Amino acid sequence: MESTKFSLLTKEEVDRKWWEIGDFFRRNSLWMLMYCTGCCAIELPPAMTSAYDMERLGMGPMATPRQADVLLVTGYLSLKTLRRLIYTYEQMSEPKYVVGIGSCTINGGIYHDSHAVINQLDQYIPVDVYVAGCMPNTEAVMNGFVDLMRLIKSKKANGWKKYHKNNEWYKKNQIDSLGEVRVKDEFHD
Amino acid sequence: MIISILMGISVAFFGFVLQTSIAGVNRKIIGRVQKRYGPKWYQEFLDIFKLLSKRSVTHGWIFDFGVIMALGGIIATAMFMPITNDLMAFPGFDNFFIFVYLIAVGMLGMAMSASGSGNPLASIGVMRALTTMLAYEIPFMIIVLTIIKLTGHSSLSEIAMFQQTAVAGLEFSGTWFMIALPVGFAVAFLSLMGMLGKKPFETYIAPAEIASGPMVEYGGKQLGMLFIMHEITVFIEVSLFVHLFLGGAENIWIFLIKYFLVYTSVNLISNVNGRFKIDQVVVFFYKWPLLFAVMQAFVAIYLGWVI
Amino acid sequence: MRELKLFLGPQHPGMHGNASIHMFVEGDIIKRAFLLPGMLHRGFEKGMERHTWVNNISLIPRVCVVEPDINEMAFAMGVETLANITVPERAHWIRMIVLELARISIHLMAYGGLGSPTGNYTMMYHAHADRNSILNIFEKITGHRVYHQYIVPGGVRKDLPVGIEKDINDFLDDLESRYVEYRDIGIENPTIVPRIKDTIVLPSEVVWELGVTGIGMRSAVNKAYDLRKVMPYARYDQVEFEVPVASYSDARSRVDLKLQELVQSISIIRQCLAKMPEGDVRVPLSRGQSMRWTVPKGHVYSCVESSRGEFGYYMVSNGGTHPYRVGVRGASYPQGLLGIEKYLPGTRIDDAALWVDTMGVCSPEIDR
Amino acid sequence: MASLEFLVIIALLGGVLAYLVGKLSKVVGASLTVLVSGFIFVSVAYFGLNGSLDASITYLPFVSFEATDLYLGTSFGILVTFIFFMVSFFNPYFVDKFKYPSLYSMFYLFSLAGVLGVFFTDDFLVLFFFFELVVWTSLFLIPLGKSKKAASWYYGFSAFGSFSLLFAIFVMRNTAGSFNINDGLSMVGGSDQILVFILLMVAAFAKLGAFPLHIWLPKVLGNSPDPVTSVFSGGLEKLGAFVAVMGLVKLAPVGPVIEAIDMALGQYLIAILGALTIVFGTLMAIRQDDAKKLIAYSSMSNGGYILVALTLLNDTSVSGALYHVLIHALASTAAFLAIGAVNRQTGTTKMSELGGMIHKMPVTYIVYLIAIISMAGIPPMGGFVSKWLIFQSVINEGMILIAIATFFGSIGSFLYVFRPLAALFLGQELPEFRKVIKEAPFFMLLPMIILSGLNIFTGVHPSVILQYINNVLAELGVTELGITTWTLSGNNGDLYPALIAVVFGVGVVIAFIIFIVLKKSRKVDLMDTYTAGNFVYTEELLHYSVDFYAPIERLYEKHINIMKDFYKGIAKKVQEFGSFVKYFFFTNKPEITVLWVVIVLGILLLWGDLL
Amino acid sequence: MNSMTNIKYVSSLVENRFKVIKKEIVSEYQISFEVDKDEVHRLLTLLKLEGWIQLSYLSAIDWINDNEYELVYIVMNWEKPVHVQIRTRISRENPSMDSILPIFPGCKYYEREVHEFFGVKFPGNPEYAKQLILEGWDDIPPLRKDFDPRAYSDAHFAKREYTETFVNLNNEKSKQVKREKRKERIIRVRKGGKK
Asked: Positive or negative CA dihedral for D187, D190, D191, D195?
């Protein structure tokens, strides 16, 4: 007669529990990548430093993509940056999250008709949270991070899974806009 | 034997928990110095466990093996560490040289793994770490030589005992070496800052130059294990300092207080400093600290002038 | 000998902004280096041709993100010269206050930025905290923290809010009282001085070859070549200030000059607050229908003194509602491109980030 | 069977046989060296440890071997024959590259015979004879490698050492009346003693490659063929240590005693020179680009440790020195063999040309790793035990300046041993080696694995060997070291090497468990690495191996050539003197030359008579 | 005024020796000369000798209706503070202009940029053809007037398509209700309180 009270958890359930525990740690210690892709990066120093002190949320800047959890896309993305951004995003260790800051990441913003700036970031890499504004002030940026934490808690911040699942679609979009993602020219040999 | 080993493992675990909490508290203190609120005191735990929960990348077997060797070597070193006079895993074998050389296994493992990642910045970081080591160890070893020569013991607990109680017939016993050898203490404190990789001797991490040096390719569990290793290393080095200069500890509370004071003062001093270049580190240590260390050793050993 | 290739940027903690320095290294000495710009290119000059003169007001601050006000000033001056507009007296003084506040803000940011390559984060945190109070003041004056769109052709957008003098004065007093502390923790700090003294020297004879202006030039040639002095715009000829100079341009002397300029800016703002007359702050460009406002034919190069040097707009009007061509002379163009190529080789990899920081290489104005 | 004479004859005959066979087939001739040296090692080890070596002489003229008090000679003998045996496995793989392969085999075995003779004889003249045999045979082994000039450097310094040894022998002969070693060393006294001491030390320094007679060492070790290098570093250098033991320990302390440190002046000076050797070797090793030269300088530095330890003359120091001889022989041989294996597979030992060897040669890498851990004195390898013993005595004597040097050498060794590890084995896998390179053949790996095993064994359970060394200490008249089965007791503390090893194992197991329960990592390519977001396609641009320690090298690079310039200056003066002599003696007219020769000879003869 | 004497000085300096097509005094610190293409180098050399040692700006203007490019050189003298614009026109077909690298080494990157954005060739500058800002550009140089960035952008980059409905982040009804109420109130206020 099997006891129903102390039945063993199935493997999926165990995994899920571990995942939830991991999520607790992940959302309380979000390390962001120091990659200033555009002008909204100017609002990050106040957020990081004494004025708003991001560290009290457990966030901190990290030097390399391997160490970081969050990729901040701060503002407009020129083609040249997008190539490096995709490369950097692919180097990050999973689970990884992307926060798009500024209107330019959403729809191109003020540079919507420029020949060098892409219009919609989530065509190329999955974005978990957008922070609108040109430029969003520091409170908005901080609020975006808190939103990301909430999303992680409710297991909705799974852009990195989407990237695996729809990899071909993303790759196609990247190649459509960029030609080739990894350029090989005289400056990169 | 088994009990001793279990005891040693618990010492290492204690060291990890202690140092991680104190590091968190220190982050808060530093935050206040920098006019901000600072993280939660258990933030370091969150960081480490977060890293352990992530899915990392590997660059080949040496990349993983080096990390295992680094953490293993450091855990092994910590197992020898006495905490109070009685609380230690292997009484009589807590030899100073074991700490200095066994810690090097961990360093070597990390260096190997970092170089194995194939990133030049990691190799540069390792080069800088080793060079820094060459700089700070010599003055420190000279001071420790003086202490061992004066006490006649190279066992840490014996040295601590020597400082705690004044025994008739034993010269210089009963005073902390912090007071007995003030110049030596100052030199050793500088060396401790070098050992802990605090500014201005933080050259081998140097995010703005070499993007965090040896750690450049780590992420996920490897980085988490290196963080654990780093915390235990700090534990070993600071407790080494407590035992050598601050007279060890009779009970665990005194140990905690002394430990906290040493680590916090190192942190506070380091936080208003910049970062030297690597050759400046070497020149710095080989100029005044080495000279003072030799002077202190000479005065203490041959002239017997000890306060 | 085999060379090693190291990169500073775009994704690197030592790089300010989104550009990449490629360094070919032997040991730790840089043998060759070049800047790979263009990661912030957004077709700016093309974009301005596609907007009307008035629309462009919202576009121009975005050329250089760290110091938007000089863009507005240069653009406004250019348009005023082309269209022959006389700016009300009070607007000149308000413009000076805003520009000097902006100068303080960027000097603080650059000074805090020195904390990153030299490793002193406390200094960085303090400097950024003070910069944030300037941003708060800006928010009160203009309604925005960073992109103000405040200086417009014909004056400033609106008058100063009531009671802002007190805020500004409080902030200036606070900053002045802590000036000594700033020096002590930064350029007088015995652990930082060896890093920045005698490193990445810019010889005075090559300044003209590069075309470097601003602090980089003044620290090398020992002459007060400041556009505010030699061709004063706004009312800089009516305030008293000194232009700090030096004859030996290493990293330390450049940062030193920045701090000294900060003191001068404080005094300029105080004088402005004292001398500022009452009156209008803006002349209307056109009666209604500002989108159809046209500017007479002409070419003008209007330039202002930014924190990094001469910042200029070359504007061509063919008499239409849109600018025919707008060219931007980024102040850090020479030191960013030619300077890195010519004067980084021979220095060490530790110093590359210091060049970027102390010479004030600002990638958005190089890329545009 | 156990006759030493028999073994020497076997080595010599084996050499001749190897030469003849080598004419027919190179590889077979070289393989013969494995058999012969293996046979000699097994015999020496078996009978030497039993104390049943036969010293009687039947065939060889003039030669005599020691009958009693054999421990010192036997320990050195076993060690060096073992090294010869281990290295001989490499010979078959390397003979193809030599110009005279059969000669190589012959000289290899001849020098083995010489080594045997040196360690087991009791007669100074025989010692000198065998010493010269070693010098001359090894002299012909060196130029088979890259540089012929190295051989001339080697010859110059060896001749200097040999002649001072000969001089010392004659001085001792004068006082003792016979050529017997023990008589000679014990009976010499007064100013003669100082002279003998100096001369013996010159011989030892020249052979050990200690400062200031070190110039030849890196040249020879860096340029000779790889097996020869290993033999030099592991075996032939130890002749110097043997002579140093004679001079420093067997000879009574020399010179007035310095009160403060309770040490004779002569010993102290040697200790200072030893300390300089350590520092100089370390600094030079840091800046080498050739891996072999780097290990060569590390050999020099370790020779300094042996000298320093021998001068202190107490139980920990002498046992530490003797143990260090063993450890260093094992470790540096293993390191040289590993680098030799790399050299054979790639054709270069320059660190700036290699990279990423670990992916193709993992076993070689592990061997090298264990060797350098031992060399750097990190537990649980043997180097830690010997360095611990040496530090114990250095601290106990309170010699601050010497201590600085020893600490510097010990920390500095981390720096230089790591460099080949990083530049040669680790880092980016260079494309030119990616396809061609394979792991070394089994018979090359075998000696390396055996040596690694011994490296670990000496670190885990040193008591067995230290027990034997205690016998040597007794023979030398030094107090014996306190040993139990598992622990050693020094002057100010005990050491439990096996415990360290066990605890280290426990630590690694814990770390491994942590590693294995966590999520599995994703394997990525080596080139998929952090480049600040830029794209790189050339492996070489990301492999940091040139000027590895550039910042620290820059601090002393102006001062490195002092000794070299000094010797160059001397050589120049000698040359000038030679041309001066030539000007007078060897003019175009032969009559004048003859006249001069006659006059000089006459003066010399007369002078000899008058004396 | 002092600055006006500077303007006069440079004006007489240039006009006496060169054939100036068009002179324009822009402001008290700025003067502009339009000269022939062949005279630019000599004029710049003269100005450099006279103290206009800093090259402030170099760029081009696309006069598509005249089928010409106009090159602009702006030089600065700090002792006699006057910006001198020198403008010259070159043909739009196969545009080429000798580099001024020997006179002003600082022009190296400006010329690279002009080549990249307008397609003007600068023989004499060894690196003018290397790409600087753009990467893998496959269209006509973007600052030419006949280049339409919007068309390029539409062809290459996906645009966000907005739908009527929007997704509520947390699916919380209360917030949506509140938001609708607020909207209604705003409309009511605008209409002056009438329903």
From this structure: positive
